[in-house]
Automatic annotation (TrEMBL):
Protein name from the UniProt record: ABC transmembrane type-1 domain-containing protein
Membrane topology: Multi-pass membrane protein
Xref: Pfam families: ABC_membrane
Domain ABC transmembrane type-1: 1-97
Species: Duganella lactea
Keywords, ordered alphabetically: Membrane, Transmembrane, Transmembrane helix
Compartments where located: Cell membrane
Length: 109
């Protein structure tokens, strides 16, 4: 199997080195694109949720705000963060268990 080292077959060794180098570059590119897509989608979702909540608050009558403290209204925006963290954790757990299902069948989130 490693006879190319003994026989001095530099062409095969060069081909293998280039092939493994290309595999590393492809893996890095896929990882980078995946991270960018996750970041983009998370940011877009965050902006949309906050904009929708703000638009909803603007449509509410003045009596709604008269009956509630400022902290109650502001806490609605904090609730968005908690919901997003929960969804992100669930999604990450689902993706990881699907990704590692064949490598480690006993993997639990």
């Amino acid at each position: 199997m490693r006879t190319f080292l003994v026989s001095g077959d530099r062409d095969l060794l060069t081909t293998l080195a280039v092939g493994f180098g290309l595999l590393m570059l492809i893996q890095q590119a896929v990882t980078t694109v995946r991270a960018w897509v996750i970041l983009y989608m998370g940011t877009t979702l965050n902006i949309q949720w906050r904009a929708n909540l703000f638009a909803h608050l603007l449509r509410l009558p003045v009596q709604y705000f008269e009956k509630r403290h400022l902290g109650d209204v502001v806490s609605r925006f904090g609730s968005i963060d908690q919901i997003q963290r929960t969804l992100a954790t669930s999604l990450r757990c689902t993706v990881n268990s699907g990704h590692f299902r064949f490598k480690q069948p006993a993997l639990v989130c």
